[in-house]
């Protein structure tokens, strides 16, 4: 039986004879259904016309993204550490070439995901590399394909291999998380932020929203929660969810200025 995939958000559902009646993730106000309505695909169909591209963002950090673009269009990040590789913010397409390249780099010690929009085919990745998937317990109800490899964490932080730290930063979703990589930026630290902290088009500032496609702002309390969660961590760079969305210098100060700007305009 095929495991159907929502063509709009890229999230995979359990194997079944027919696709689900609806995709709850896309029916939520933070996501959307396209004008043509709900559409479904499968990994087999994706493999027929899509492939994954790679980019080395900096030593120890690879980007992996699907071409042509699919669903939301985020790219994953593979962080290499002496204790094993960690995949951050999964993508839907996994094929033989991708599996071979990941194995050549040492496989995966863990998968971690910022929020439900990027759950994609996380179970397929977990099964392929026999790796745990770390999700914050606040988003437990958004898991559309349960699997024993999924590990729910709670509280403010969760340690991962290689001195990486998951940070609970609720706002965009209750279980929203970012990943701190202390070895990034030549030891000055990097924040892998998904769109919990959305790197803006100018690559010098960031935004904080409940819904990006539907332009629903995040209130002051949510912005402050995110800012408070990441405040204890040092980072020079911020890597967002897309290839070109990165703040490469003075990242922590840039996020702090963005928080101040956002709160100032929310108060108008």
CATH superfamily: Ribonuclease Z/Hydroxyacylglutathione hydrolase-like
The number of helical runs is 7
Strand content: 25-35%
Structural class: alpha+beta
The portion of residues assigned to helices is 10-25%
**N- and C-termini, Cα separation:** 54 Å
What is the CATH fold-level name?
Metallo-beta-lactamase, Chain A
Q: List low-pLDDT spans.
A: none
* CATH C-level label: Alpha Beta
The 3D shape can be described as globular
CATH architecture assignment name:
4-Layer Sandwich
Q: Helix and strand string, N-terminal first?
A: EEHEHEEEEHEHEEEEEHEEEEEHEEH
Whole-number tally of structural domains: 1
Tally the beta strands. 20
Mean pLDDT metric: 98
- The side-by-side strand order for the widest beta sheet comes to 4-5-6-7-8-9-10
Evaluate the radius of gyration. Answer: 18 Å
Would you write up a description of this structure?
The protein has 268 residues and is α+β, with helices and mostly antiparallel strands. The protein has a single domain, classed as Ribonuclease Z/Hydroxyacylglutathione hydrolase-like (Metallo-beta-lactamase, Chain A). The protein is 22% helix and 29% strand. The protein has helices at 24-27, 43-49, 96-104, 122-129, 184-187, 220-230, 251-266; strands at residues 3-6, 12-15, 40-41, 51-58, 61-67, 76-79, 86-88, 110-112, 133-136, 150-153, 157-160, 164-168, 177-181, 190-194, 198-199, 206-207, 209-211, 216-217, 237-240, 246-247. It has a seven-stranded mixed sheet with strand order 4-5-6-7-8-9-10. A six-stranded mixed sheet has the order 11-12-13-14-19-20. Strands 2-1-3 form a three-stranded antiparallel sheet. Strand 5 and strand 6 (76-79) form a beta hairpin. Helix 6 (220-230) runs antiparallel to helix 7 (251-266). It is globular and about 50 Å long. The protein starts with a strand and ends with a helix.
